[in-house]
Design goal:
Radius of gyration: 19 Å
Largest sheet: 6 strands, parallel
Number of helices: 10
Strand order of the largest sheet: 2-1-3-4-8-7
CATH topology: Rossmann fold
CATH superfamily: Thiamin diphosphate (ThDP)-binding fold, Pyr/PP domains
Length: 323
């Protein structure tokens, strides 16, 4: 890992990871209570990838992000508010997409989030479109596409990486390898040990990083961002991480080997950063507990606010469309 980040930056990352963990737990409860309908895909355990990535992205400079349906953490890390996100999931007009997108379709352009995509790999060609725009206009902005470990097995992934490499687009391809593509172990679906191994076929750097370490993720993404902004083309980053819950809201994840979850819980991203900060004298355990208590308060306030918001009127189906 490179030089440690400042105490202020670490504090911001830790606080945001705690907030993501708290609201994800509440979202699951709201689904079981039938307050949130449809499906949800939670990112408990993967928070370090979200905050490490977001600390590099500069939306004010024009940077953009696309990600998967497991995108709540990415959206919050980039700056989407809990209120706007929860209202969207409830189908309320005050949501970030006016209640029309739901859990899998979050968009927040002011913070650089082009969208969370329900179709596997669908965001990567869009990433290249944003990267090509930045390249053509000479803005120095970058486009970052986040995907899971199952995505490199589909054609859109190869097309996107190949095109970005040929045109030297300022794209970053960030894989969250949580070991499972839906219910299938990565090792059963890919002929190479690491997703990053595929980078050599396209002549670009392939980097493997500890996805449970927010600072390590930040360092890897920052290096790739510097390369992209310099005009040297894309980078493929593979963050080794793990989702604590099943694929979606009703998946008990019975396919996981005994002891696997417990082993990954020992490397919880929140605990890793908190322990490092405590060891460096930057925070106390009491302060960490205070952050968790505040996150619980903020999450409840966001839920109460969202519950009180109206649903969109029926004629709203005729808005925000093109013919």
């Amino acid at each position: 890992m490179s030089e440690p980040l400042s105490a202020a930056m670490r504090q911001q990352m830790l606080q945001r990871m705690i907030e993501i963990r708290e609201i994800e737990g509440r979202i699951q409860e709201l689904f079981l209570e039938n307050v949130i309908r449809g499906t949800t895909h939670l990112c408990d355990g993967q928070e370090a990838v979200s905050v490490g990535m977001a600390a590099v992205v500069d939306a004010a400079h024009g940077d953009t992000v696309t990600c998967t349906y497991r995108g709540h953490g990415h959206a919050l890390a980039l700056g989407l508010t809990m209120r706007s996100m929860v209202a969207e999931m409830m189908g309320k007009v005050s949501g970030c997409c006016k209640g029309k997108g739901g859990s899998m379709h979050l968009t927040d352009m002011p913070n650089g989030l082009i969208g969370t995509f329900a179709v596997v790999g669908a965001g990567l060609p869009v990433t290249n479109g944003a990267a090509l725009t930045a390249q053509t206009k000479g803005t120095g902005a970058l486009a970052l596409g986040i995907f899971g470990d199952g995505t490199p097995n589909i054609g859109a992934w190869h097309e996107a990486v190949n095109l970005a490499a040929v045109w030297k687009l300022p794209s970053i391809f960030l894989c969250e390898n949580n070991l499972y593509g839906e219910y299938s172990p990565y090792a059963d679906t890919a002929p190479v040990e690491n997703v990053a191994d595929r980078a050599c076929a396209y002549g670009i750097p392939g980097v493997i990083v500890d996805g449970q370490d927010a600072e390590a993720v930040y360092a890897a993404v920052k290096t790739a961002a510097d390369r992209a902004r310099a005009g040297d083309g894309p980078t493929l980053i593979e963050a080794k991480t793990y989702r604590y819950r099943g694929h979606s809201r009703t998946d008990p994840a019975a396919y996981r080997p005994e002891g696997e979850l417990d082993a990954w819980l020992q490397r919880d991203p929140i605990n890793i950063l908190a322990a490092r900060m405590i060891a460096d004298g930057q925070i106390t355990q009491a302060a960490v507990d205070g952050l968790k208590a505040q996150a619980a308060t903020d999450a409840q306030a966001a839920i109460d606010w969202a519950l009180a918001q109206p649903h969109p009127p029926l004629d709203a189906v005729h808005e925000d469309i093109w013919v």
